[in-house]
Amino acid sequence: MELRHLRYFLTVAEERQFTRAAARLHIQQPPLSQQIQELERELGFALFTRLPRGVELTSAGAAFVVDAQAVLDALDRGVTNARRVANGQLGSVRLALTSSAAFHPLATAAIRQFRATHPDIAIDLNEINAAGIIERMVSGRIDAGILRKPIETPAELRFDLLHEERMVLVLPAGHALLAHPKGPRQRKQDAQPQVPLKALAGEPFIFVRRPGAPGMYADFIRACEATGFKPDVVSEVPRMSSAINLVAAGAGITLVPASMQRYQQESVVYCAVAGDEAFSAPLHLVTHRHSANPAAARFAQSVLEFVSAESTRAVTA
């Protein structure tokens, strides 16, 4: 049995006449009659009762109409869905973010915008460190990632800069540097203290585990060493929110992207580091250069267009 047999049968069932059905199907009437007879022989029962001026469905034929139509409807839905998948309108995206990237409002807004404009694409969202994102991207276990500063940039992956922001120093409330006359200085443009880099010598630092996020602190460590000291790293934690919590508990100090200043504001003080131009916290979108997932390609395009529109609005505001 072929699909065309079902289409022929349903057309004859609607027209109740071979001549009109043949005209609709753009074939001759005798071949159409032969095709219906072949279908009836294959099924083992009559579909139509032949009348002098047309045909009418047998009881078996009337029952078969329902299932034949369901088969063709299911096929049409399958073709439509497959076409939407191929066009990136239907499917799923396996997305991973680092903890600090997930905290950035631009990243969450871009994802929210994509969800609103592509409701038929599911997003499987996970929080993973930067090294884990790169490893899973290379192995094909995720489709896209949003992270800060990758230490590895494999050739098969594409890295698009979404946003650039500075790093800020996090001190526990009441820290000695906040009261030291040669410690922080108030910026004229805002109320955020500014701490000289050399004043941080001997301070206990809490960093996100550098095997997981090795690129985040590289510039800062090099700047410290150029100033004459090596940061005393007393603890390494899995995510930046954990580092801020430890700072609030008095366990040390840390650096985080400026967008995380909304966290633990009552217990910590966020400060700029004098000469902090080198201490950047870029936000990157990482995707496969040759993705086999059209939905992932659509996601990347949507994020980049959203970020571009936000940048244009910021410039013209």
Automatic annotation (TrEMBL):
- GO annotations of cellular component type: protein-DNA complex
Identify the keywords attached in UniProt to this record, alphabetized.
Answer: DNA-binding, Transcription, Transcription regulation
Q: Which CDD domains match?
A: PBP2_BudR
Q: Which domain of life, per UniProt? A: Bacteria
- State one Pfam family annotation: HTH_1
| Keyword Transcription found | yes
Alphabetical list of InterPro entries matching this protein: BudR_PBP2, LysR_HTH_N, LysR_subst-bd, WH-like_DNA-bd_sf, WH_DNA-bd_sf
- Give residue ranges for domain HTH lysR-type: 1-58
Q: Does the keyword Transcription apply?
A: yes
Show the GO MF annotations. DNA binding; DNA-binding transcription factor activity
Q: Which family does it belong to?
A: Belongs to the LysR transcriptional regulatory family.
Q: What is this protein called?
A: LysR substrate binding domain protein
Record organism: Caballeronia sordidicola (Burkholderia sordidicola)
